[in-house]
Amino acid sequence: MSIVRRLATLAALATMAFGSAQAVAMAATPSNVAASSVHTTTVVRQAAIPDTTPVGCTFGSSSGNVRTCFQIVGSGLFVNYMAASACVFNSGRTLHIEITGPSFTANSVQEFVPPGICLDFTVSINADVAPGAYHAITWRYNGGSSYTNIGEVTWNVIA
Asked: Which residues are 13's β-sheet partners?
């Protein structure tokens, strides 16, 4: 997918992001990316990503309830940002999103997401990252210290 299409997708998503509860999320410092260049944000917004959006998406093991989508915007090893979303369709869930790969692991804040609402998580990098597989994982909170991976999308970053 071209960077232009990815940027157009981001612009479309941004226009839908009129939700609330923006918060800075916690992130581990990437091993080969300057800490000052990595920023994360979590947004809860209304409306689901349309099926025609050109990003990788899956319902995973959620039985059609939560759609996880993931995109990486950049060129070669240079990554502007990675963005993931978890959109709930039928039954509300307490979720958080993890974006992980060879250069870093970052987690969104954990939120209860009702039907018709999406949890968005963006990691702004603006630097080269290590080549390899990067994953966006939606984790459902089960209570206590128990979580279930209910959706995972993988993109490979190559030079």
From this structure: none
What distance lies between CA 3 and its chain's CA centroid? 17
DSSP 36: G
pLDDT tens digits for range 81-127: 999 999 999 999 999 999 999 999 999 999 999 999 999 999 999 99
List the structure tokens of 71: 């995109």
Residues of the chain with pLDDT under 50: 1-37, 45-54
Domains within the chain, CATH numbers bracketed: 3-157 (2.60.40.1930)
Distance CA 69, CA 64 (A): 13
Instruction: Label residue 125 exposed, middle or buried (CB < 10 Å: 0-12, 13-18, 19+).
Output: buried
- The single residue listed with the structure tokens 């800075």 is 24
> Do 43 and 120 touch, CB atoms closer than 8 A?
yes
